[in-house]
C-alpha cells in the first residue's frame, strides 16, 4: 500500500485572494446590478463552502491513511512498504513479480500478530559483513580466520524467492511478557520445517510418509490440501533475544523483561502452503518406560526438549532432540512423533519414552534418509573426516574413512591432504536431515563454522558467534567420502534497519533442510535460527545450490 503525504497528493485548491475571489467581489445591496449580483454572490458562496468541505474530507482521508494499517493499529512504514519492495525487486518476469507482490499484500493484510514480523537488533548483533556500510572494523579473528578455498563468505542469493518467512509461534500460554506488550522472551530456536506431502517426490522411490501415520491430519485438512502443507518443530527456552541491551534499547525494541525462560520445551506447528500457522501444540512425553533419570509412571509430561529437528524414517515422522540434564549432554535422542486429537478436538503431539533411540556422542548429527525400509537408521556424525554411523535398537556400527586407509582418530582440516596433522577440522554438521540426490549418488547437507572456534565466554554471545554456512555432499554408499562443498555464505539479515540489507546476523544456525521438487530445478527449504532468538524459513532455488557446489578431489 502506497501512502501519499498531503503535499504529494494532487488536489484542487481555491484561490481566496485573486481575481474572482471573495475579496474582489462587490456584494453591496446598493449595487446597481441588484438582484443579478446577489444571485451571483450566493452561487459563489455555495461553491466556496463546497470547496472548503472537499479540502476537509481530503485531509481526513490522508490522516486516516497515515495513522492506520491493515493490522488495525499504528505500525512503522517499513512493516509494509520495505517488505514488499525488498521481496519483489528484480524477481522473475513481470507476471512472477506481480504474483509475489499479491502474496506479500496477503501476508500484510491477514497478519494479526505483530510478533510475527522479524525483529530489529542493535548494531552489534549483526555479523559485520563488508557490504554493510555501518559495520564496525572487522575483528582480528575474522581477518585471520581460515575459509574454504580462501574465499570470504558471501551474502546468499536465494533466487526467485529471495526472502525468508518468519517462523511464528503463539507464546501466550506460557510467556507473561506478551500481556505487557513485549516481544516473546524467545520467539523460537532451531526451527525445522518439512513438507507433509504423501506422494513420493521426484527423487524418491517411495513416499517417505505413510498416510495412516498422519491420518488425523488427513481427516482434518484433506489429503489434497495436505500435499502442499508443512509441519514444523521449534524449541522455546533460554535464548539470547536480550544480550547487553540498555534499558532504552529494550524499551524501543520491545525486548521482554521477564528475565528467565519460564519453560524449555518443543512446540509442533502445522503450516499452510504459505508457511502460516494453522495449528500449534506442545510436544509431550508419554512416560511408558524409564526415560533417562525419569521413571515410568504412564502419564503425559511436558519435558525439556532442546535442539529439536524433524526427519522421516520408515513412513513415520520422527523428532530428534537433546535433554542434557536427564539423558546426558553427549546424547542425541530420537523418537517417532504421534499426532492425535484430544477430547476437545484439538491436535496434540507426543513421544513414547519406550521408543527412544539414542546416539552417542555429540550434537547436530544429521539423519540420512533411505528408501530402503530394511536398513537401520544412519547418521552423519562428522563431516571431515566423513563419519557415518548406523544405529538403532539393535546396536551401532561405526563406519569411517578408515575403510579406505584414513586415520579415524585425527580430524583433518578441509583443504589439507593426508592425516596426522595437529589441526582439528573446524567444520560442523548442522541440518537434521540429509537430502538424497539420486542422479549423482549423493546426500546433500549444510555445514557451519563459527569464528573463533571455541565456545568460551566472550562479549558477542553466550557461546558461538559469527556463523557461516556451506552446502556439501557425500557419497550415498560406503565408502563414504566428501564429494562437493560450496564456499561459505551468510543468510541475508531480515532486519528492517536501513543499511543492513547486505549483512548477516551475528548468530545464524541452519538446523533443517528439505527438498521441494527436483534436485536440479526444485527448491531447498532451509530452516534456520537468528541470534538464538527467532527462526526463519527460506526456499532456495536448487539451480543456485547446484551451481555453488564445487567438486572435492578424493583424499582432500
N→C terminal distance:
53 Å
Q: Roughly what percent helix?
A: 10-25%
Total strands? 27
What is the radius of gyration? Answer: 29 Å
Using the alpha-carbon principal axes, give the shape: globular
Average residue pLDDT: 76
The total count of helices amounts to 9
Strand content: 25-35%
Helix- and strand-based class?
alpha+beta
Major sheet: size, sense and barrel closure? 10 strands, mixed
| Unreliable segments of 5+ consecutive residues | 1-40, 58-111, 394-422
Your description of this structure?
- With 556 residues, the chain is α+β, with helices and mostly antiparallel strands.
- Strands 14, 15, 16, 17, 18, 19, 20, 21, 22 and 27 form a 10-stranded mixed sheet that branches.
- The protein is globular, with a radius of gyration of 29 Å.
Amino acid at each position: 500500500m502506497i501512502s501519499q503525504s498531503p503535499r504529494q497528493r494532487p488536489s484542487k485548491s481555491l484561490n481566496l485572494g485573486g481575481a474572482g475571489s471573495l475579496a474582489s467581489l462587490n456584494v453591496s445591496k446598493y449595487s446597481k446590478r441588484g438582484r443579478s449580483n446577489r444571485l451571483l454572490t450566493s452561487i459563489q458562496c455555495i461553491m466556496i463552502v463546497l470547496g472548503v468541505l472537499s479540502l476537509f474530507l481530503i485531509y481526513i482521508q490522508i490522516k486516516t491513511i497515515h495513522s492506520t494499517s491493515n493490522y488495525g493499529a499504528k505500525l512503522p512504514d517499513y512493516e509494509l512498504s520495505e517488505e514488499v519492495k525488498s521481496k519483489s525487486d528484480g524477481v522473475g518476469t513481470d507476471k512472477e513479480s506481480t504474483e509475489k507482490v499479491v502474496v506479500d499484500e496477503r501476508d500484510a493484510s491477514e497478519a494479526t500478530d505483530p510478533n510475527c514480523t522479524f525483529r530489529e537488533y542493535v548494531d552489534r548483533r549483526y555479523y559485520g559483513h563488508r557490504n554493510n556500510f555501518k559495520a564496525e572494523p572487522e575483528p582480528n579473528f575474522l581477518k585471520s580466520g581460515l575459509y574454504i578455498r580462501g574465499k570470504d563468505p558471501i551474502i546468499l542469493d536465494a533466487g526467485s524467492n529471495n526472502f525468508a518467512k518468519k517462523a511464528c509461534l503463539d507464546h501466550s500460554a506460557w510467556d507473561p511478557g506478551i500481556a505487557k506488550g513485549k516481544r516473546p522472551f524467545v520467539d523460537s530456536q532451531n526451527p525445522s520445517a518439512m513438507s507433509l506431502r504423501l506422494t513420493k517426490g521426484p527423487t524418491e522411490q517411495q513416499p517417505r510418509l505413510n498416510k495412516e501415520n498422519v491420518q488425523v491430519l488427513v481427516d482434518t485438512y484433506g489429503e489434497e490440501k495436505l500435499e502442499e502443507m508443512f509441519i514444523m518443530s521449534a524449541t522455546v527456552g533460554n535464548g539470547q533475544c536480550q544480550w547487553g541491551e540498555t534499558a532504552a534499547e529494550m524499551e524501543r525494541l520491545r525486548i521482554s523483561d521477564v528475565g528467565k525462560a519460564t519453560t524449555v520445551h518443543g512446540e509442533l506447528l502445522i503450516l499452510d502452503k504459505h508457511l502460516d500457522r494453522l495449528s500449534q501444540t506442545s510436544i509431550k512425553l508419554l512416560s511408558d518406560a524409564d526415560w533417562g533419570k525419569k521413571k515410568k509412571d504412564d502419564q503425559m509430561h511436558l519435558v525439556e526438549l532442546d535442539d529439536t529437528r524433524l526427519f522421516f524414517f520408515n513412513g513415520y515422522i520422527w523428532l530428534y532432540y537433546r535433554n542434557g540434564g536427564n539423558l546426558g549432554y553427549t546424547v542425541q535422542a530420537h523418537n517417532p512423533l504421534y499426532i492425535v486429537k484430544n477430547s476437545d478436538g484439538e491436535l496434540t503431539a507426543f513421544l513414547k519414552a519406550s521408543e527412544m533411540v539414542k546416539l552417542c556422542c555429540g550434537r547436530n548429527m544429521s539423519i540420512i534418509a533411505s528408501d530402503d525400509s530394511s536398513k537401520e537408521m544412519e547418521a552423519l556424525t562428522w563431516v571431515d573426516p566423513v563419519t557415518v554411523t548406523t544405529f538403532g535398537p539393535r546396536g551401532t556400527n561405526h563406519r569411517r574413512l578408515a575403510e579406505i586407509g584414513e586415520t579415524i582418530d585425527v580430524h583433518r582440516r578441509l583443504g589439507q591432504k593426508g592425516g596426522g596433522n595437529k589441526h582439528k577440522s573446524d567444520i560442523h554438521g548442522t541440518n537434521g536431515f540429509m537430502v538424497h540426490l539420486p542422479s549423482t549418488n549423493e546426500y546433500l547437507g549444510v555445514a557451519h563454522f563459527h569464528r573463533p572456534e571455541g565456545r568460551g565466554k566472550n562479549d558477542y554471545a553466550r557461546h558461538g558467534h559469527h556463523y557461516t554456512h556451506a552446502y556439501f555432499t557425500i557419497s550415498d554408499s560406503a565408502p563414504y567420502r566428501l564429494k562437493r562443498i560450496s564456499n561459505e555464505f551468510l543468510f541475508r539479515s531480515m532486519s528492517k534497519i536501513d543499511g543492513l540489507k547486505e549483512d548477516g546476523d551475528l548468530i545464524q544456525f541452519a538446523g533443517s533442510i528439505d527438498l521441494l521438487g527436483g534436485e536440479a530445478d526444485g527448491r531447498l527449504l532451509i530452516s534456520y535460527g537468528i541470534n538464538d532468538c527467532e527462526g526463519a524459513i527460506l526456499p532456495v532455488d536448487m539451480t543456485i545450490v547446484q551451481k555453488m557446489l564445487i567438486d572435492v578431489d578424493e583424499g582432500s
